[in-house]
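Postdoc handover notes: sequence design on the structure in folder B. Input tokens:
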């Protein structure tokens, strides 16, 4: 009797895990139509033949590969509602999305993506360090960022304020902008537009890093400005396209984007 109960519990656990990982893969086609690429099970693991972590989706019927995507610190991921994660894949030159059967599975994969990007970001900030950082250092870096992030939130998890704009806080500000859901992103946009000193301080840091030819921090500022633009907030656009800030905003993006691509990026509809 006990063995039957254990077998039943084990089968239920396997089914729950399978449901958590069950996703539909969508690809955005020309004309704005999302094409269903199939249903399968998603996992976060090291890509075969690579030392880089990524997302893989295997078809639930024939185990064929539906998706292989390397997770990098450059990618901008969006969590929409409770069950969708989307991003632009540079290799596919289009938008991709995963639609999860269960919100818990979406949250689990989202947390994994955020942790990987956070660890990659800290590796990029290693300056002259060569080679991969020990796992213990990655974990400590993630712990420090998480503890600092919590200090800017209320008891119910709502973002109360942004970290102060200074050079040491740039990774934390970037994390705050990129990792939130729709509600958090709206709150971040609101806090940025309410803070009169946000852009002046950020662009002062940009000019200082430019004068010092500090490429690591210029790269960080580029990603931060790009993330702010992708919040798609009209009130933020009013600020960054103002005469006061536009030249420095373009300068911050020019560090990493060629001029033709920059023009396309800035004037997307």
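Designed sequence:
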């Amino acid at each position: 009797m006990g063995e039957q109960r254990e077998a039943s519990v084990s089968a239920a656990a396997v089914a729950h895990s399978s449901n958590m990982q069950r996703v539909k893969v969508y690809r955005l086609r020309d004309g704005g139509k999302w094409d269903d690429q199939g249903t399968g099970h998603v996992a976060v693991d090291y890509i075969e033949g690579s030392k880089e972590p990524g997302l893989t989706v295997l078809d639930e019927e024939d185990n064929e590969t539906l998706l292989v995507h390397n997770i990098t610190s450059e990618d901008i991921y969006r969590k929409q509602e409770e069950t969708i994660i989307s991003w632009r894949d540079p290799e596919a030159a289009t938008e991709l999305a995963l639609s999860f059967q269960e919100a818990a599975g979406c949250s689990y994969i989202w947390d994994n993506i955020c942790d990987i990007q956070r660890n990659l970001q800290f590796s990029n900030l290693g300056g002259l360090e060569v080679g991969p950082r020990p796992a213990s250092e990655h974990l400590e870096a993630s712990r420090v960022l998480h503890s600092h992030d919590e200090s800017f939130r209320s008891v119910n998890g709502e973002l109360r304020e942004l970290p102060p704009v200074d050079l040491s806080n740039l990774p934390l500000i970037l994390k705050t902008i990129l990792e939130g859901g729709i509600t958090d992103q709206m709150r971040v946009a609101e806090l940025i537009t309410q803070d009169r000193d946000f852009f002046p301080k950020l662009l002062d840091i940009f000019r200082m890093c430019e004068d010092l030819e500090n490429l690591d921090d210029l790269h960080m500022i580029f990603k931060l400005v790009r993330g702010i633009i992708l919040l798609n907030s009209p009130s933020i656009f009013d600020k960054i396209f103002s005469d006061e800030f536009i030249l420095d905003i373009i300068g911050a993006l020019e560090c990493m984007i060629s001029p033709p691509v920059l023009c396309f990026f800035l004037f997307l509809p």
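Context for whoever picks this up: The longest strand covers residues 34-46. Don't rerun without checking with the PI first.
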